[in-house]
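I am writing to request your help with a piece of structural work I have in hand. The matter concerns a single protein, recorded as an amino acid sequence and a row of backbone structure tokens. Could you please explain, in whatever detail you think fit, how the structure tokens follow from the sequence? Thank you for your consideration; the sequence and its tokens are set out here:
>
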Amino acid sequence: MDNELLSIGRFARLSGLSVGALRHYDELDLLRPAEVDRSTSYRRYRREQLETARTIARLRDVEMPIDEIRAVLTADDPAERRRLVAAHRERLEARSFRVQYLLHVTGRISQGREPIVTDATATTTADIDAATHRQLGVDLYNSTWTLLEKADRTKPETDEMIHRAHASRWHWGRVGEDVNLARGEWLCSRVYAVIGRPEPALWHARRCVEIDEASANREAWDLPSAYEAMARAHLAAGDRRSARDWATKARAELAKIDDADDREVIENDLAALDLG
């Protein structure tokens, strides 16, 4: 019968949530049972609550925080629900970018292509010498990624993320080679693409491509990475056709790379793009 009350065990089986999770969501006022027996404290649910429970299970599967799930459940407008899910996706994407970068760096260290320990004197040098510029360039680059992956980044933090990306590029501009400058432009483009600012994203992506294409000492992954930045920037501008063209160029360059780890980082970046 439609009015039949389901035990918590049966409701759990039908909804895909555990009994423990249902008790927890009751305590959080996210999913209250229809009835609680005063003498036994047994919880019972109506069948029409299954849709809500399955929605919760689905969103928890993609690691959406409880407060955001609550907002989805209370939103009457389907467009608002989609916006909330899209915002969560952006945070997941930012986290994946950070993980990809960390995998790339640790891979290079493990292969002996970068040192484990950097110059310890750089941060204590009174004058801004070359070592200090390099250290600041690295530190600001890494801290920009930390802000890129931050959930619920505030407007002041977004401002700081932009300034840190530019500051990293500026320090490398004092002491770096052309490949360092291109990577700085790439980071600036990524930041602007992530926050939905297509014009500066395209500007810095173009500079990245220009520098890399003219470079005699770039590494194999630099050029496809630059082309990926162009694809991402065009996508931010809503130009899917150009984005697909640049993604095709990036994949053609990737095919020339022997190192699977170097390919994987950029392949994952390209796979994350919604090229339609």
Confidence is low (pLDDT under 50) at residues 121-126.
